[in-house]
Structures are given as structure tokens and as C-alpha cells.
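seq:
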Amino acid sequence: MSKRLLGALALSLLIAAPSVAQTPAAPLSTQLAGTETELRAIDRALDGRVDADAQKSLRSRALAAQQVAKDVGDGLDEQITLLDARLAGLGPPAAGVTEAPDIKAQRMVLTQQRSALDATSKRAGLASIEAQQLVDEIEQSREQQFNEKISAQAASPLGPAFWKALLASLPRDIKRIGLFLSQGIDQIGSARDAVPWQALLGAVFGFVFFVPLRIWARALGQKVLVEGAPGRRVRRSANALWRVIVGTLCPLLAAMIVTQGLRWSGLLPARWNGMGDAVVLATGFSAFTAAVSGALLMRRQPSWRIAAIDDETAARMRPLTWILAALSFVTILLSAFDMAIGASQAAQVASQTLIAVLHLLLIATFLLVLGRLRAARSEYDDAASTTASAGIGIVLLVVWMLIVIASIALVMGYIAFSLFTAQLIAWAAILSATLYLMTAAVDDVATSAFTRSSRLGVMLTRALRVRGSVVDQFGVLLSAFLRLVLVCVALGMLVSPFGGSGGLGAVFGRLGVLAQGIEVGGVSISPATIVRGAVVLAIGLGLTRAFMGWLENRYLPITDLDGSGRNSVSLVARYVAIAIAFIWALASLGIGIEHVALLLSALSVGIGFGLQAITQNFVSGLILLAERPIKIGDLVRVGNDEGDVKRISVRSTEIELADHSTLIVPNSELITKSVLNKTMAGPLGRIQIKFSVPLDTDASKVRGMVQDAFASDSAVLDEPAPKVFIDGLTEGRIEFNCFGHVANQRAVYAARSTVLMTLLDQFRAAGIDIGTVPQRLELVAAGTDLAAIAP
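struct:
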């Protein structure tokens, strides 16, 4: 019976195996074959010299082929897994046991199928690797061409060779311009046979889009935002973005409509198509530049201004932004015109020189105006403004250094590098303004939508029982995440308009080769690596400072943590961030984690002996921050000293004493020794007053007077109520022990003094003698019997 069942099972597996394994593999193999053919075509195309556009197309094709190869490999791996499961179900052949023929045949078929799939999977892996190699080759070629372009040296504009070459090529360039114009005019004359109504309509619609529609859309957006947008911050950010969108799209659409109208009417010859496209591109970019700067400055509407810019700065900067927009327009058109007419190399170099000089002069004017404005405002700045002004000063100093470098490069004949640097500064300014507006808008929307008082926040707190602080925290975290994404996108776009695919590292990395340095323990030490490590460390510490500012000023204030909890989180986050920054810097030097571990193991003996106290205090500080037996603001007593905890670090704790001096206590002392924390359980403070009155005094009257004294002081709480107790009867006196409570421990001393003064006045007026048990002193002569005179 068992053999029949086994045979039936084997037969079913034999029938099912081809349907599962063979059928899906056929299309995957076909896709892989097509991918391999595509990669061979890309490889052949790279054998010759290709331009930038062709390189982009080949790179896209290689990436697509790589993705197909990965998908094929993943599909084949899934089928191999299924076959392995079937083979595992059959099990290995038992030694000394004759298998059934059908099971043996099935194992053979499955093994062959697995071998075939495994071979195809390896082909897919090789295809993916080949595609990645082609992508890397294209990237290296693009970087090499870009570096060759910006590092090319021409004749200095201050030398006679520059002007001699320009004058020599001038007649030929004039002929090219004349031919370009005459051919275009002739084509227009031959193509136009009627009234160019398409061009007229394009001009009319272009004017409508450029002037009245743009003004109307801007006013409409502002009106809608005033009436319907929630919160002033959201209205300001949305208005700025709307101004950018309207200010960019309306001129861009106007240029497109006018250009298309000229094409349809035959007034734009085929040879002038490039210039028409350049006009559209130049209009869109210059309009974007003007719109972004206008939305940032808001010269005519200071109440809608997002940035902390005063009116005078906005008024002085706005004309310069218009000049920058016009210069961008001219730059794009001039480059397109040189390409359209086939200008000589000397003419192109002269055009680049002119554009570079104009950019450098405009940037220098920006910096001079901004420097004068900052100097005029410096005497009115507060501490926060001084810190921000210091950061701006560093940025301006770096820009001045870049301008000097670009100017020197221009004089030496590195025209392309000078133009690249000047345009990079201008583009960085435009990109920074756009990034500022976008991050402000993202922050305003996220923190306004996800707050406990918003509609969404109320719905979450009521429907899902989410705490209000959690909603606030989510809004801040969402804002931080989106702003980080925007920063990454902006960094990626920084050099992309100039053809640099490798970023700033590709621009400056190959301009000069530093010394190779020495290699110690597998780590290369050279000036280049040291500078790189210092730069990475500075960037890491800068990011740490920015992160700590966001954590302490934005995130922690909206949590449910008290001041001490925020301090603990802030300290731990700061040390972790600094550690990550140092690890990042070491990684940039080529020092991996294994080298760090080796160094720590070598220092372990020294830590165990020479640094034992420091290590003990460090660990104790971590325990204090984690367990929080002592928090910032607590009133503690360490030995004979009592004061308020002002700061807890990983090494020591600072306690401010009553005389305003600071007691610095190592953390190990607070962990291993007894410490009195008067405010750990609660803030309430207790007043204790002890005194005695003669035995014949009315105790009830005394108790009432004490209660009245407590009640007369506003610092003494009604709940818990004051208590008056008789502590005992000693030496003919009644001993009273009285207690009252105040709001905090720091009010105990003053309240106790006030109550005692009130009691003294009341007892003196009532003629009640208060004090302690009187002491009797007797002088006894030598030899006197003490028992005889004892009371």
C-alpha cells in the first residue's frame, strides 16, 4: 500500500514540476537574452566618442538593463528555491536501498532543471555586474570631460594673445552671423504667404499671460489665503510658494505661446529653432530667479515676509536680484547664439569671459551691499542675532575667497573654471533661497497640521486616544524628515545644471594631485586624507550642532519630559552625535571600526589603571542620566553642603550653594555615597518648630496661638494642615513640636523665621515664657557628699 502511495506522489510531482519550473523560466531567459543584447549595443556605442546627451541616454539604457537583469535574477532565485524544496522533499538516495524508477527519474529531472536555472541566474548576475560597469564607465567619462572642460587654459584676457585671436576670428564670426540672419530671413520670406495670425494671437496671449493674468493670479491667491488658510504662518508660506509658481509659470507659458505662434506662422525658421527654445528656457529660468528672490524679500509686502529681513535690506537687494535674473537670461541666450551660428573658439572664450566678469562683479556688489547693511546693524544686534550674524559672516568670507580664486583663475586664462565658479555661486544663492522657502513651508504645514489644537490633532486625540504631545512630536519629526529630504535634493541639484555629475569632489578632486603620503597599518596618511578628515569632522560637528539646536529648541519642548529629562536626552544625544562625527571622520581617513577596536584594546590597560577614576565618573554619569535619582533643579545635600543641582554631565555634577558658589561633585560620589535629595519625592517643604512653656500654662491656648501664627503666613499651606503636638513633659515644662508645610523646600527657612517672629510677639504679649528646660549649675566643695545635696 505504501509503495502505491509513494508512486502516486512521485507521479504527481513529476507532472507538476515542469509546469512550475519550466514555464516561467522561458520568458525570463528571453528577457535576459534581450538584456545581454542591449548591453553589447551600449558597449559598442561607448567605443566611439559620444556627446553629453548621448551619454545620458546610454546611462539610462544601462540602468534599465541592470534593473531587468536584477528582476530576472530574483525570479530565477525564487524558482531555484522551489526546486530545492522539492529536492529536499524527495530526500537523498538511501544507501543500500533500491529507489523506485519514477522517483529516480524525477530527481534527475529536478536536478537538471536546477542546474539550468542556476546557470541562467549566474548569467543574470554577470549581466547586472556588466551593466554597473558600463554605468561607472559612463560616469567616469562624463566626469573626465567635465574636468577637462573646466581645467582647460586659454590665453589670459589681460594678454595680447587673447585679443589677437579674437580679432583674427572676428571677420569669420561676422560672416557667420550674417549668414545666420540672412538664411533665417530668406526662410521667413519664402514660408510666409498670408497674414501671420498665429503669431499675432501668440503675442496677444503671451502678453495676457505675462502681465494681467500673472497679476490677477497673484492677487487671487493672496485673497484666498487670507480668507481660508489656517494660521498666519501657513498663509505666509503658501503665499510665497504661490508667488514663485505664478511668477515662473506665467512668463514661461507666455514665452512658449509666443514661440509656438511664430513656428505655426512660419516666422521661426528651422535654423532658429534652437534660439526659440533658448528664449523659452531663458525666460523660465530668469522668471524663476526673479520670483524666488521676490518671494523671499517681499519688498512691497513686509507683513508677508517669511525671512527675518528688514525693509532696508529688502529694498537694497531687490534691484540686484532683477539684474541677476537679466544676466541669467542673457547668459543662456548668448550661449545658444554661439552654438547656433557655430562661433569660433576665440569668440566662445570671449563670451565666457564677459559672462564670468559680469557674474563676478554682480556677486561682489551683492557682498558689498550686504556687508554695509550688516555693519550698520551690528550695534543693534542681540546675542542671538550676533550668533546668526557670525554664521553669515563665515559664509560671506567663503564667498569672497571663491570670488578671489575665480578672479585669479580668470586672469590666468582658466576661463571655464572662473565662469563655473561664478555661476555656481549664483546658482547656490538661488537654490538656497528656494530651499529656505520650501523648508519654511514644509515646517509650517507639518507643524500646523499635526498639533494638538488643529482639527486633525483634535480628531486624533479624541478618536484614537493619542496624546497631544505625541501629535506635536509627530509634526516636528515629519517636518524634520521632509526638510532633510529637501536638503538632500538641493545638494544633488547644486552642480547638475553645469554638467557635473560627480559633485564638487569631481570638480576639485582632479585639479591637482597631492602627495601620496605613507601607509601605516593599511591606512594611507597624506595631506589630502588629513584635510579630508578635518573637513568631514567639521561637517559632522556642524551637523551635530544643527541637530542639537533642533532637538533642544523644537522637539524636546513639545514632549512630556521635564527639564531634567530633556537635559538627559540632550546630553546623551550630544555625545552620541559627537561620537558618530568622529567615527565618520575616521572612516574618511580609511580607519575602520576594526582599527578603532584595536586601539581601544591597546588602551584598555591604561584605562584600567591610569584612567580608572575618569571611567568610573563617566559610567556613574550615564547611570545618573538613565536612572535620574538626581535631576536638575533638585535640592540636595552632599555631606555638609546643600544646594540646587544646576547641571549634570557625564563626568561631574554642578550644585549651586546658598552663597551662589558652585560645588562640583564627581558623579561617582553621588552614586557610591549617601545623598539627601529633598525634592525627589515632591516639592513640598516642612517647617518644624520646637519650644517649651511652663507646666502651668494653658496648653490649648498655646496650640491656638501656634495655629494662628501658621495661618497668618501666606507661605504656609492649608493642605496639608499645620499640626501642633505635645512632645513631652520635662523638668516642669511642656514641650511642643509643631509642623507646617510650604510649597517648596526653598521657602522653608523664610517661612519658619516668619512664624517664629509671630509666635514671639504673641507669647510676649500674653506673658507666656517660652524656651528650653532651665539648667542649674552648682559649685560643690571638695569632699562633700553628693547624695546629701541631690534633689
